[in-house]
Amino acid sequence: MYFKKPGKIAFILSLAIMLVLFLVPTSVYAQPAKSTYEFSYDLSGKTFVAGGSGTDVPVTLSTDTLGSEGYSNVIYKVSYSGPGTAELWASDSSGTYDVAAIGRWGPASGFALDADFSATTSFECKFDTAGTYTINFELYDLDSDSTITSGSAEINVLEAGKSEYGFSYDVGGKEFIVNEPTVIPVTLQATTTRSEGYGLVIIDVEVNGPGTAKLLAKDTTGTEYDIAAEKHWGPKTGFPLPPDYSATTDVTAIFDTAGDYTITLTLINLSEPVTLMVADKVILPEQMILAQASETITVTEPGQPAQDTNKPASSPEETETAVFTITASGGSGGSISDEGVTEVTQGNDKTYIITPKDGYEISEVMVDGVPVGAVDSYTFSNVDSNHTIYVDFGIIGQIEAAGITEEKETVEVAGVTEELPYTGYDWFHYILAAAALLTAACLCTYLRIEGAKK
Question: Which of 328, 349, 347, 345 is nearest to 337 (CA)?
Fold first, then answer.
């Protein structure tokens, strides 16, 4: 059989070529496809502290889409940005390296990367300054001088130490009418987040006003409490306070009498309880008070003009720094001006004058539990926290007479032992007792002599 026309031969050959191309596997003539890869980071539950010992972060490079081949010559490029210096320490069979300083991970000449690849490297991360850092990893092909894939992780580095907290009350636009419930959202949150919180805290609740106030709040189980009557919020044994704590509680307020009421919330540290006994009163040292904020609410009778509904919600800065208290007290033998609790507006000064009675002198003045000497006045300047001042008096000459040391008596309060001035007899009483005994002895001797004459 033969073809008479050349065109038919060309047509038959074309069909044969097409059939061959269809039957031959694609892998015979297609270019090989390379795998793709991705970085992943495990930051769950990690805390990073400036100046700390370091935190391990596992970084994984793995195949994302499997191809027919990998790369023959790659490196990890490493970089970071942030407010300070970062160290990223990693180890291999040849040693331990700070890859942040080197700028890469792996040999400078590169290494082979299989098509099906997965490996995790743990990097110990250290930072010298608090703030937000971005760590960048880049898989780089040295043969083609191009980036294969990249990834980044954002790390928030905290200052070392305890967090600071504040209260805020949202009363903006609210009307308070006698015997009508009004909801006040109250927020406790960390205003400065650091690396540590507190093991046990409690919220003290105090309400001052012309009548009785109810403050109803529910706990996490749905149980409702009148925290104004309970005088605290939270379990009596305390509750843990994380460093980044933030929570808002809806408090339903009910007042039975019109007038101005002041609600004061105080966050108290129970982790290391310390109390002082001053003038037969238990005083909380300043270090136990973590935050304090007050809010004044005007309650009106039905039908009367309400308080300014345009009043903005209190911010933590406004409520925490408005008013502080100074508690002044003293022992017998003199007086201190403005004895008791005095409210002082933030930034103001407060001076106390100390006056001993006749025959007495100032023995010691204690400010916030710290002795400041036998001063006759003391000024709290630019007040920005609560304070205490206590003055002790003694009979003139008693404390320094002939090397005699003033006696102390010990009182234990809440597991803490404090030394207070001894309140027993002083030397004047001892002299009187000795004189009485001497007189009695002389009288007995006289009576014996007279009896012998008879």
Answer: 328
Q: Quick count: other Cβ atoms within 10 Å of Cβ 131?
A: 14
Closest C-alpha to 332, from 241, 421, 405, 215:
421
226-271: per-residue pLDDT in tens?
999 999 998 888 899 999 999 999 999 999 999 999 999 999 998 8
Query: Amino acid identity, residue 49?
Result: V
Instruction: Tokens for 219, please give them.
Output: 């706990």
Confidence of residue 408 (pLDDT cuts 50, 70, 90): very low
> How far apart, in whole angstroms, are the C-alpha atoms of residue 96 and residue 106?
11
**Structure tokens, 392:** 């002790």
SS3 30: coil
How far lies 78's CA from each of 106, 140, 192, 247, in Å? 11, 10, 31, 39
Place of tokens 């990893």: 137
Burial of 228 (0-12, 13-18, 19+ CB in 10 A): buried
* Position 181 pLDDT exceeds 80: yes
Supply the mean pLDDT for the chain: 81
The DSSP symbol for 401 reads G
Among candidate residues 242, 224, 158, the one with its CA nearest the CA of residue 195:
158
Could you read off the pLDDT of 40-57 as tens digits, one per residue? 998 888 999 999 889 999
Q: pTM (2 decimals)?
A: 0.52
